[in-house]
């Protein structure tokens, strides 16, 4: 197939790596700021409770984005199918939260694969 | 073991933080905790991450990036949503600076993820070495640690987290390479499953979140996420997190718990 060092044609090779270095530094910077701030935060404080809520909300927003407004291949699946499969997987999960993570994951994933096969 | 079984319990009860409950002696030593972290990662979390990274590797290949670049993002960034943004923006020809900024913005969740996870570690572990361990932090390891930490002695939590995060990180590199070389060889239906398994996993772990303040935050995040995404894509995670999280906090403070809290 293609040569291994084929580059995206809209982007020169060096610029791409510079962008990667910047992205990596930015990502690590966010993690490091967190470590720095965590040194002075007490796990029993009000700020901790608020930050935990903010974090859960962020993570939920990210997950919803991936499910409701996906990019690429997943966008070709109708929204109602995505939501229905999620609902079924959650149904399996809540029937016994302590034990059903893997069965629920399998339910959702296999249903999605199944949809891909029959469409 | 000579060490005390007494976890550090603060009597100033924050009813929700899942930390103050008496912890049973779960691990004998740090090595025990480390391997337990590895074992816990080796099930669903590793499978989920593996699938996600395979999907990402395939994305790199189909868009004409080379295997070194695609794999480097997994090794050095280890943040799937950020990696996807990086590729998307590179494909559309954004400048290196714009790419770096946009990726950094999607990574702001790491600030609060770290700030909510690391204060739960034992005081003796809260030192400069955390700047190395924090690279292993990603959503998968965070979600599991938040769930498990309350049942682990404080002094063994870091070992457990490092075991968990290390396996997740190490598995993402071969997964990316595999995805890169498998691209185009796997039926679309299977790829669909691989792409879907990641968000589904996060969704399912939400059902295990106990404190009502965090449950409220999750629910509001699901509602505000798409709204802010339509308003401005790049900052939407940050804004929806801040707005939904703050509302959840206020609901908790004014209604869910009877007594008024003191701002700390």
UniProtKB/TrEMBL annotation, chain A:
<keyword id="KW-0472">Membrane</keyword>
<feature type="transmembrane region" description="Helical">
    <location>
        <begin position="101"/>
        <end position="118"/>
    </location>
</feature>
<keyword id="KW-0812">Transmembrane</keyword>
<dbReference type="Pfam" id="PF05437">
    <property type="entry name" value="AzlD"/>
</dbReference>
<feature type="transmembrane region" description="Helical">
    <location>
        <begin position="77"/>
        <end position="94"/>
    </location>
</feature>
<feature type="transmembrane region" description="Helical">
    <location>
        <begin position="50"/>
        <end position="71"/>
    </location>
</feature>
<feature type="transmembrane region" description="Helical">
    <location>
        <begin position="14"/>
        <end position="38"/>
    </location>
</feature>
<keyword id="KW-1133">Transmembrane helix</keyword>
<protein>
    <submittedName>
        <fullName>AzlD domain-containing protein</fullName>
    </submittedName>
</protein>
<dbReference type="InterPro" id="IPR008407">
    <property type="entry name" value="Brnchd-chn_aa_trnsp_AzlD"/>
</dbReference>
From TrEMBL, chain B:
<keyword id="KW-1003">Cell membrane</keyword>
<dbReference type="GO" id="GO:0005886">
    <property type="term" value="C:plasma membrane"/>
</dbReference>
<feature type="region of interest" description="Disordered">
    <location>
        <begin position="1"/>
        <end position="21"/>
    </location>
</feature>
<dbReference type="GO" id="GO:1903785">
    <property type="term" value="P:L-valine transmembrane transport"/>
</dbReference>
<comment type="similarity">
    <text>Belongs to the AzlC family.</text>
</comment>
<dbReference type="InterPro" id="IPR011606">
    <property type="entry name" value="Brnchd-chn_aa_trnsp_permease"/>
</dbReference>
<feature type="transmembrane region" description="Helical">
    <location>
        <begin position="188"/>
        <end position="206"/>
    </location>
</feature>
<feature type="transmembrane region" description="Helical">
    <location>
        <begin position="158"/>
        <end position="182"/>
    </location>
</feature>
<feature type="transmembrane region" description="Helical">
    <location>
        <begin position="65"/>
        <end position="86"/>
    </location>
</feature>
<feature type="transmembrane region" description="Helical">
    <location>
        <begin position="130"/>
        <end position="146"/>
    </location>
</feature>
<protein>
    <submittedName>
        <fullName>Branched-chain amino acid ABC transporter permease</fullName>
    </submittedName>
</protein>
<feature type="transmembrane region" description="Helical">
    <location>
        <begin position="98"/>
        <end position="118"/>
    </location>
</feature>
<keyword id="KW-0813">Transport</keyword>
<feature type="transmembrane region" description="Helical">
    <location>
        <begin position="41"/>
        <end position="59"/>
    </location>
</feature>
<dbReference type="Pfam" id="PF03591">
    <property type="entry name" value="AzlC"/>
</dbReference>
<feature type="transmembrane region" description="Helical">
    <location>
        <begin position="213"/>
        <end position="231"/>
    </location>
</feature>
<keyword id="KW-0812">Transmembrane</keyword>
<keyword id="KW-1133">Transmembrane helix</keyword>
<keyword id="KW-0472">Membrane</keyword>
């Amino acid at each position: 197939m293609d040569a291994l060092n084929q580059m995206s044609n809209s982007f020169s090779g060096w610029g791409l790596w510079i962008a990667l270095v910047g992205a990596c530094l930015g990502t690590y910077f966010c993690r490091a700021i967190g470590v720095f701030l965590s040194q002075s935060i007490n796990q029993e404080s009000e700020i901790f409770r608020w930050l935990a809520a903010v974090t859960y909300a962020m993570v939920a927003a990210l997950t919803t984005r991936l499910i409701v407004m996906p990019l690429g291949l997943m966008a070709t699946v109708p929204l109602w199918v995505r939501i229905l499969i999620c609902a079924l997987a959650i149904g399996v999960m809540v029937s016994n939260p302590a034990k059903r993570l893997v069965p629920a994951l399998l339910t959702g994933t296999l249903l999605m694969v199944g949809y891909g096969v029959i469409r | 073991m000579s060490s005390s079984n007494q976890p550090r319990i603060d009597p100033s009860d924050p009813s929700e933080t899942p930390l103050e409950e008496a912890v049973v002696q779960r691990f004998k030593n740090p090595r025990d905790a480390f391997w337990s972290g590895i074992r816990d990662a080796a099930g669903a979390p590793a499978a989920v991450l593996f699938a996600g990274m395979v999907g990402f590797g395939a994305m790199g290949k189909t868009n004409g990036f080379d295997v070194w670049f695609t794999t480097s993002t997994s090794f050095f960034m280890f943040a799937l949503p950020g990696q996807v943004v990086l590729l998307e923006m590179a494909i559309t020809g954004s400048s290196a600076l714009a790419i770096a900024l946009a990726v950094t913005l999607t990574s702001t969740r790491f600030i609060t993820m770290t700030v909510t996870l690391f204060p739960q570690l034992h005081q003796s572990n809260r030192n400069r070495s955390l700047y190395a361990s924090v690279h292993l932090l990603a959503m998968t390891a965070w979600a599991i640690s938040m769930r498990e930490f309350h049942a682990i002695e404080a002094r063994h939590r870091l070992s457990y987290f490092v075991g968990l995060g290390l396996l997740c990180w190490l598995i993402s590199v071969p997964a990316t390479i595999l995805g890169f070389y498998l691209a185009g060889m796997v039926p679309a239906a299977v790829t669909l499953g691989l792409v879907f398994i990641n968000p589904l996993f996060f969704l399912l772990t939400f059902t295990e979140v106990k404190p009502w303040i965090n449950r409220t935050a999750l629910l509001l995040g699901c509602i505000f996420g798409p709204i802010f995404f339509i308003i401005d894509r790049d900052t939407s995670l940050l804004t929806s997190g801040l707005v939904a999280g703050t509302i959840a906090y206020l609901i908790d403070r004014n209604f869910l718990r009877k007594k008024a809290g003191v701002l700390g």
